[in-house]
Amino acid sequence: MSDHQDPAQLYQRVASDVRLGRDVRLAAFINLYGCTIGDESRIGTFVEIQRGAQIGRRCKIQSHTFICEGVEIGDEVFVGHGVVFTNDRLPRATTATGALQDTTDWVCERTVVHRRASIGSGATILCGLTIGEESVIGAGAVVTRDVAPRVVVAGNPARVLRDEITLD
Fold first, then answer.
1. pTM of the entire structure?
2. CA dist 42 to 10, 22, 76, 136, 168, Å?
3. Residue 4: which residues within 8 A CB-CB, separation 6 or more?
4. Domain extents in the chain
5. Torsion from C-alpha of 157, 158, 161, 163, nearest 10 degrees
6. pLDDT class for 103, splitting at 50, 70, 90?
7. Which terminus of the chain, N or C, has less C-beta within 10 A?
8. Which fold has domain 14-86+107-162?
9. Is the distance from CB of 141 to CB of 153 less than 8 angstroms?
10. Which of 26, 28, 51 has its CA nearest to residue 41?
């Protein structure tokens, strides 16, 4: 280790195809490849962000979170600890013939999280959904449907608990 190397960098896997914005802060023990992370965002410990995922500006992605291919997170979004996104409606290990699946054997479903949304710790976000601007997803929720802007949802499956919240 050189005298100028940040020790945290020893425990990061940031592929050369990752696009990092200005003043992005990365914790140790992360895995980033083929993704884009906007200016001033913070990525916590034990986070994986896959190829093609996009993280906006001034986001906070807390520890132990998994953001897969096909996920687009807008500006100023909070993603709590241990949040999991999915991108395949019918995941299978093998094809009908028994061969291991590869990238040509499935369809990546896009998920969009709009500006200033907040996703609580332990939530699971199924694929192909839209999370509305300034909405709040409760801790541990399983989101199976689109979430409207400025509502609070929680539970399994997630249901609206409160309409039209106002932030700030």
1. 0.89
2. 18, 11, 11, 19, 21
3. none
4. 14-86+107-162
5. -130
6. confident
7. C
8. UDP N-Acetylglucosamine Acyltransferase; domain 1 (2.160.10)
9. yes
10. 26
